[in-house]
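Protein in question quoted for reference:
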Amino acid sequence: MNGTPESAGIAEPDGSWRRFDAAPLPPVLQAAQDCFGEHGYHGTTIREVAARAGLSVPGIYHHYPSKQALLVGIAQAAMAELYDRTLAAAEEAGADPVDRIRAVVESLVLFHAHRGPSAFIAASEIRSLDGDARAAHIAARDRQQRLLSDAVDDAAAAGRVGTPVPHEAMRAVTTMCTAVAQWYRLDGPLRPEELASTYVRFALDLLRIDGAGPA
């Protein structure tokens, strides 16, 4: 195992992007994610990951050659799943750009609510990724961002975006959605679906999209 999944393969444009089962990480990556979440990447040792996974240190190295490979595996798995889900949402929404904005924002919020730990690590530990891995992660992040920016551009071209600064508004929407991973708890009073619906309304307001109808 090299820890570099290309795609989570979990979402199709049939509504399955709204469904979340248990986190799809293999046990070693799950153990590393837990440790990185508690102590940070640089504060975690391979021995701690091994103990959390119930393996020996050589057992960890049998699957992943380094601590860096563990971080790469977590980050790539998170970005692959997020992209799969968001692409499925955008495709299901169809040609209408406002519907695509709604769907992409909903998908972003649902992912960052359900997959908070992996999303947080993928975002906060980008500084800990080495050269090529960091470049690949940034490219994956940019590909993901284009799903929203393309929808916003199409809506603006159709005269449906009222703000004079659509790109700045789009970045604000992205930031508020990804920040969900920092504070949201699944055992809290607000269900992910309720939060997503609220954030869709926030996004439409930021973009000044009038007459879009209920989310």
